């Protein structure tokens, strides 16, 4: 069992003011995984005060960009060395299957390297032409004290995609972690400590929603960087707007994968489990709407059915399990309510359905589920379920497919399947979404990631992501 009885505040370990410890239990069998300190508003005050002091008076913002990069490089090396340990702990906390956690954790070194490349290439100061022979200096300066608020579904990825660019920019950071994954957050704090950042630069606080809102509202926080639900994002945006606080939001999705009439359906069927059910379907970028031409609709449904029936469900620590338990009992009940809603609305249940898989009653398991004959107006097609539920929607022609894909409050990801890449590119240009895959192609960490519409504000990764932690100052001489 893992125990962290202290919080990490400004580079030092400190007992929480209330002395309260969280119990983290396995989503697989409810066994005790560990205990972790939980922050209160009083702890937030301590963390923000030390971050404010470190930003206003300390060395961190005043180091050269190259000096800050040196600290981040050291951290990246230390973090990479512990990837296997971190992945196992995350799997035990949130139920993400080992294959997914290990794969994602192994990519984080490159995610950080992409930010380092962006920082190395950035013109931190540059001169531009001014009027009447004057000289104009443009400086890029850190935005200030950053509150980075992350969810439980991909905790280290969500943390580092915010903390790393903020640090490279010269900001000081309070990382607010989800209670469900408090243990891996405090393990991450150990690595920050070992990397030797100056006092006050980084704090790590697992905390509940009430304390999180206190942090977001704190007058000494200059920017909020959030990943989570769209409902929470709206609340954060309203608080930030009232205070004119900088904000970036990576929110929900209901992404559509369009199968064109010339697509290789075997290729589609092989990819569907990864795109729809990866990370137990608890992924904002999951492709949970599959759009199929009426001319090949039943063929698509049959192949997707066969692929879904091969998905193995079980202990997330078992490398053979493709889908594990959902993070909490409440999340399991939420997903099951959507499955019942789909049946009530008249969708055809193809695979799965309500109820717990046999032999897994002790955990937060749901059956991977596929619905056919889905109308895009149904709740299961419009709302983010955040579980292993896929809907297959028929369309008449390419224009109809584009219309359906865009008929969503979200715009985070999506894709198209076709034997003609140029045709796929033409479709991609018509979809209002931040990330789009042609034939399942992957994207790197140098390109921006984020969403249109209710999927968020701002972008992460690479140069664009680094820029969200910078202010621009113009000095005319």
Question: Which spans have pLDDT < 50 for at least 5 consecutive residues?
Answer: none
Beta content: 15-25%
Overall tally of domains: 2
Q: Give me the number of helical elements.
A: 15
**Based on helices, strands and strand pairing, what is the structural class?**
alpha/beta
Q: Summarize the main sheet.
A: 7 strands, mixed
pLDDT averaged residue by residue: 97
Report how far the terminal alpha carbons are from each other: 62 Å
CATH architecture of the largest domain: 3-Layer(aba) Sandwich
- CATH superfamily of the largest domain, by name, is Aldehyde Dehydrogenase, Chain A, domain 1
Determine the CATH topology of the largest domain: Aldehyde Dehydrogenase, Chain A, domain 1
CA-atom Rg in angstroms: 23 Å
Output the strand order for the largest sheet: 15-16-17-14-13-19-20
Give the beta-strand count.
Answer: 23
Principal-axes geometry comes out as globular
What is the CATH first-level class name of the largest domain?
Alpha Beta
The share of residues in helices is 40-55%
Task: Considering the chains and any ligands shown, give keywords for the structure.
single chain; about 475 residues; alpha/beta; Aldehyde Dehydrogenase, Chain A, domain 1; Aldehyde Dehydrogenase, Chain A, domain 2; 2 domains; 7-stranded mixed beta sheet; 23 strands; about 20% strand; globular
